[in-house]
């Protein structure tokens, strides 16, 4: 006699299908997918790639798109290096083909006048537009943009921004090419949210605004170290210690990108079209005092508990540098660290909160301040030891 198989009701079958679908959707992030990281050989990009490889073992491939490739990354498993120009649409389209998600970190960061405004616009604005168009034509549904706190400020007047969030009212007044370009690029990304992409889906976008990023292998930190050697490791205090800035460790910036990459696929509506400040538990301090947290381990000393240079003298030096830069432009690229814009930035309190990122996708710093500091100090001490050994 043939055994009877119990007949499943339509509702039971539907529930089973729904359960399989939901489970599959929740586990889809990073499973056998291709991620594209533009600017993946830069300071942040390289750190982000390493974190993706470590924390997302299900990724099939991490594509690294950059104008200048870091050949040391070629041996990394699941990494494909692609050389190309972000300001060239065809280069971007070729790199984007087949990618499920793109993290767009490629950017020209210049507040000293080392790069022409036209070049900054071509990379930061046109490059971002190219990424968006490539997403649309290649069917890449998810775009995460690495913006900057300088989209908000400090503004040209030096108005303070104290423990602000994404909704804090603040008059944005930009005149310099870099913050202007980042603001335009971020707006392009947010306005592109919801655009139809090839295949019938909609583009989902969001942007992260890191404060000043620090960490091992940061080129600007190394530059500060080398500059301090010329003054026998003695630094003169130039801004009040009461000035506060929010700085964020590179590992925590990468971690936030990874978390939002998961969330944008698992629950697109939670983050679509949103912007988020990116900060961690690093102490709020002036740029000078914060840098001394690391340089002090190499024997550097800060002279003065108060600014040793009058405010008017610093202002004069900044304006004089700007005049020299204009005067020497036909002959050479004179681009000192001190200019009117950088002086405004370092003298203006600008601190942010990340409660929105915590609420929307569960962001908590992966690295504590103590660990972030220890990692950066160890790197600088190694540089210092190598210099001493070379004497």
TrEMBL record:
BP-aspect Gene Ontology terms: B cell chemotaxis; steroid biosynthetic process
UniProt keyword annotation of Membrane present: yes
Record-annotated 3-beta hydroxysteroid dehydrogenase/isomerase domain positions: 36-301
Compartments where located: Endoplasmic reticulum membrane; Mitochondrion membrane
Signal sequence coordinates: 1-24
Gene Ontology annotations for the cellular component aspect, listed alphabetically: endoplasmic reticulum membrane; lipid droplet; mitochondrial membrane
PANTHER family hit by this protein: BIFUNCTIONAL POLYMYXIN RESISTANCE PROTEIN ARNA, SHORT CHAIN DEHYDROGENASE_REDUCTASE FAMILY 42E, MEMBER 2
This protein's name: Hydroxy-delta-5-steroid dehydrogenase, 3 beta- and steroid delta-isomerase 7
Gene: HSD3B7
């Amino acid at each position: 006699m043939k055994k009877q198989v119990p007949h499943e009701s339509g509702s039971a079958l539907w529930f089973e299908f729904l359960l399989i679908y939901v489970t599959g959707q929740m586990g889809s992030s990073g499973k056998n997918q291709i991620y594209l990281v533009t600017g993946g050989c830069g300071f942040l990009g390289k750190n982000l790639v390493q974190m993706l490889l470590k924390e997302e073992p299900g990724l099939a491939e991490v594509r690294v798109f950059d104008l200048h490739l870091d050949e040391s990354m070629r041996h990394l498993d699941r990494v494909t290096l692609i050389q190309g120009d972000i300001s060239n649409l065809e280069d971007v389209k070729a790199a984007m083909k087949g990618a499920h998600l793109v993290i767009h970190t490629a950017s020209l960061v210049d507040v000293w006048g080392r790069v022409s405004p036209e070049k900054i616009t071509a990379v930061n604005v046109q490059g971002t537009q190219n990424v968006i168009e490539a997403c649309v034509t290649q069917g890449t549904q998810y775009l995460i943009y690495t913006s900057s706190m300088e989209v908000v400020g400090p503004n040209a007047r030096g108005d303070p921004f104290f423990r602000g969030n994404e909704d804090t009212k603040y008059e944005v007044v930009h005149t310099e090419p870099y913050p202007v370009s980042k603001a335009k690029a971020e707006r392009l990304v947010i306005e592109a949210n919801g655009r139809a992409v090839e295949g019938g889906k909609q583009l989902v976008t969001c942007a992260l605004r890191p404060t000043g990023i620090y960490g091992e292998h940061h080129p600007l930190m190394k530059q500060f170290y080398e500059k301090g050697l010329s003054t026998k490791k003695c630094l003169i205090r130039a801004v009040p210690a009461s000035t506060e800035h929010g700085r964020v460790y590179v590992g925590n910036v990468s971690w936030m990108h990874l978390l939002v990459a998961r969330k944008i696929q698992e629950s697109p509506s939670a983050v679509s079209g949103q912007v988020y400040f990116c900060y961690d538990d690093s102490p709020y301090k002036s740029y000078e005092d914060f840098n001394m947290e690391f340089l002090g381990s190499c024997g550097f000393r800060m002279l003065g508990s108060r600014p040793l240079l009058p405010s008017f003298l610093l202002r004069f030096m900044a304006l004089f540098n700007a005049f020299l830069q204009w005067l020497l432009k036909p002959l050479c690229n004179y681009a000192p660290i001190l200019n009117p814009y950088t002086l405004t930035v370092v003298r203006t309190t600008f601190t942010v909160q990340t409660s929105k990122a915590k609420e929307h996708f569960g962001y908590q710093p992966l690295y504590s301040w103590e660990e972030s500091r220890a990692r950066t100090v160890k790197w600088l001490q190694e540089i210092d030891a190598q210099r001493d050994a070379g004497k």
